[in-house]
Amino acid sequence: MKIAQISPLYESVPPKLYGGTERVVSYLTEELVRQGHDVTLFASGDSRTHARLVSPTESALRLRDVQDPLAHHIAHLQEVIERSDEFDVMHFHTDYLHFPMARLLKKPSLTTLHGRLDLPDLVYVYKKFKHHPLVSISNAQRKGLPLPVNWIGTVYHGLPRDLYEAGKGDGDYLAFIGRISPEKRPDRAIQIAKEAGIKIKIAAKIDKADASYYEKEIKPLLEQPHVEFIGEIGEDRKGEFLGRAKALLFPIDWPEPFGMVMIEAMACGTPVIAFGHGSVPEVIDEGKTGFVVHSIKESLQAVENLDQLDRDQVRSLFEQRFSVEVMTRNYLRLYESLCPPLKKYSPRAQASKKRTTPISLV
């Protein structure tokens, strides 16, 4: 199958540091290539991929002094338009920016929505383009958009199975990783650790938009003896950080669309204690990969019950539900549903022309 993956330009694919959408695009793209598909990735020029790379910009926009990112994305989408006849299906990850062109191209396409949908202004655009095929990253994500739009499926994010190894949880600390922001509630994580009498390590980035919140609300809390602030970390350090933690604290206070860090922890065999907002009840297998809580008191009870969880089972359930192979298989089903003549397409037959060992989808 000839597939176009269209990523936003804010981060490279994969991102050098933080960037959930671009990481998912990278994992999906590389797995599709591994399975023998002909994939073109539209992304920033500093992206790394085994697919064919097309880009109007030499590097990710977040790493440059860019005053108008929309201008770069318009040029980006024009590249997609000019090459659209090359593909069986086009998979967009650029929110709603491409909706007008996707309708005019009359080519099979779908869009994965990676962000929150509970913003009032979004109603106007999704009402206008209600027939465009949409994919949610959790069923909970859909609740933010109370419109009869064209949902064609929910596909959970997936990680390569060899990205992280199962850790022993021997670090005697609780972990918090992500962004320092009000909706992520690092203050709540610090309180839980304090009342549980356990050290907490915080590996998090601070966006400019959250700088004031950090200075006023979080920075003073970091002075406490049980808190160690590490700052933003990359993939090279994340595995050990999560693998040695007793548990990941995910005390969110917003409708999280997915929560990649939860499955990262599971890949390390580390259970998750998370407040039950948004996707959390879908991602966590209660009493198996972690605990879904609704208060500080319940969080403390969960910490006390961590020894009841089997870290090997946490890792096993990650592989069953959130591996890149599972994610890719689910997307391929959606591609084929949009391209009926391609239902009998066999990547095994195509791959055999190039490889001595064919690769199957299953």
TrEMBL record:
Task: Output the PANTHER family linked to this UniProt entry.
Answer: BLL5217 PROTEIN, GLYCOSYLTRANSFERASE
Q: Any idea which UniProt keywords this protein has? A: Transferase
User: Where in the numbering of this chain does the Glycosyl transferase family domain appear?
Assistant: 169-309
GO MF term (any one): glycosyltransferase activity
Tell me the organism: Pseudozobellia thermophila
Looking up InterPro entries in the UniProt record yields: Glyco_trans_1, Glyco_trans_4-like_N
Q: What protein is this chain from?
A: Glycosyltransferase involved in cell wall bisynthesis
- Location of the Glycosyltransferase subfamily 4-like N-terminal domain: 18-132
